[in-house]
Design brief:
Elements (H helix, E strand, L loop, with lengths): L5 E12 L2 E12 L3 E5 L6 H9 L6 E6 L12 E4 L11 H11 L4 H14 L15 H13 L5 E5 L7 H16 L3 E6 L2 H7 L2 E6 L2 E7 H6 L4 E6 L15 E3 L2 E5 L5 H10 L4 E7 L3 H9 L1 H8 L3
Parallel strand pairs: 3-7, 3-8, 5-6, 6-7
Antiparallel strand pairs: 1-2, 1-4, 8-9, 10-12, 10-13, 11-12
The structure holds adenosine-5'-triphosphate.
Pfam families: ABC_tran
Family: Belongs to the ABC transporter superfamily.
Protein name: ATP-binding cassette domain-containing protein
């Protein structure tokens, strides 16, 4: 099964804690080589789903495959995992911490140390190679932990809320690192409650809310569920052109906002011109992932997503 086209597949996974449903029939497929975003507010069931994929816990019902294997732990050497709870041994030098994490995934320590030196150098942390973790800033320590998840050259990288706790500069560096991994052919799954990260990085997403998948598939497909939005400002106040606007068009100041009618932009433009609207400004915007998220998971889940980083 090693040649499965999916790096990870979840089928109807269910998990209860003390009788309470945490994950309620979750299914999604992660194509090999993709960057896959797992989006949802806090408590939605992201961590529990990722732990089940990894084989840290078993689903009560349903199944999963990781790199084609039914028993995820049998492919642990090909997987890298950044848990939500971060932590390294404070007294360990940065290089040793990375080599140690690699060793846990089967990489000989000597090779791990050599790779760690290069990885730290490339991450701009060359001077910290032999410094103990406790002397690093929180952001640097998190970078070291990330390097420890890739040092053994995994085929699949699973990162649980990797952007949390990083400042904007380090978030940008992490995005670059994720892209670099994907370019090498590594599949990357990351969870987030910040839509913008997924929007910039992913072609594929799963949206989870209250333990259920609200959407799984291509970002483009999520967006395509929404019509483009028209923003229109006219010189004329009244006229035959107004008949071309949908009944639910919103007027804010001198501007109208409405969904592009199903007939598309041409009939609308023609009606505006023939009807003497006097177009002052006009834009037609494709909805972003955020709008799609609101439409799919609801306002309440979207509002929770915006909190914190
Ligand atoms: N070991 C556990 N024992 C009891 N309840 C748990 C356990 N792990 C998770 N839960 C509960 O399951 C639900 C889903 O939690 P989970 O951590 O998977 O969500 P999440 O989307 O990753 O959110 P967060 O980012 O806040 O961790 C929550 O209600 C949580 O309290």
């Amino acid at each position: 099964m090693e040649n499965s086209q999916y790096a990870a597949e979840a089928r109807d996974m269910v998990k209860r804690f003390d009788g309470k449903l945490a994950v309620d029939g979750v299914s999604f497929s992660v194509p090999r080589g993709s960057i896959f975003g797992f989006l949802g507010p806090n408590g939605a069931g992201k961590t529990t789903s990722l732990r089940m994929l990894l084989g840290i816990i078993d689903p009560d019902e349903g199944s999963r495959t990781l790199l084609g294997a039914d028993q995820p732990l049998t492919v642990a050497h090909d997987v890298g995992y950044l848990p939500e709870e971060r932590g390294l041994y404070p007294a360990m030098p940065a290089k040793e911490a990375i080599a140690f994490m690699g060793a846990l995934r089967g990489l000989p320590l000597k090779e791990g140390r050599a790779r760690a030196v290069d990885l730290l150098e490339n991450a701009g942390l060359g001077e910290w190679t032999d410094k103990p973790i406790r002397s690093l800033s929180k952001g640097m320590a998190q970078t070291v932990q990330l390097l420890g998840t890739i040092v053994h050259g995994p085929k699949l990288l699973i990162l649980d809320e990797p952007f949390s706790g990083l400042d904007a500069i380090n978030q940008g560096k992490l995005e670059d690192m994720i892209r670099a991994q994907a370019e090498k052919g590594t599949t990357v799954i990351f969870s987030t409650h910040v839509i913008a990260h997924a929007e910039r990085l992913c072609e594929q997403v799963a949206i989870i809310a209250k333990g259920k998948i609200a959407f799984a598939g291509a970002v483009a497909e999520a967006r395509a569920r929404l019509r483009p939005i028209v923003n229109l400002r006219t010189r004329a106040d009244e006229g035959a052109w107004k008949e071309a606007l949908p009944a639910d068009a919103k007027k804010v100041g001198h501007e109208y906002h409405f969904e592009l009618p199903a007939s598309g932009p041409e009939p609308l433009l023609k009606a505006l011109i023939d009807g003497g609207a006097g177009i002052e400004t006009l834009s037609i915007e494709r909805p972003g992932l955020h709008d799609a998220f609101v439409a799919i998971a609801g306002e309440a889940a979207a509002a929770e997503m915006e909190e914190g980083n």
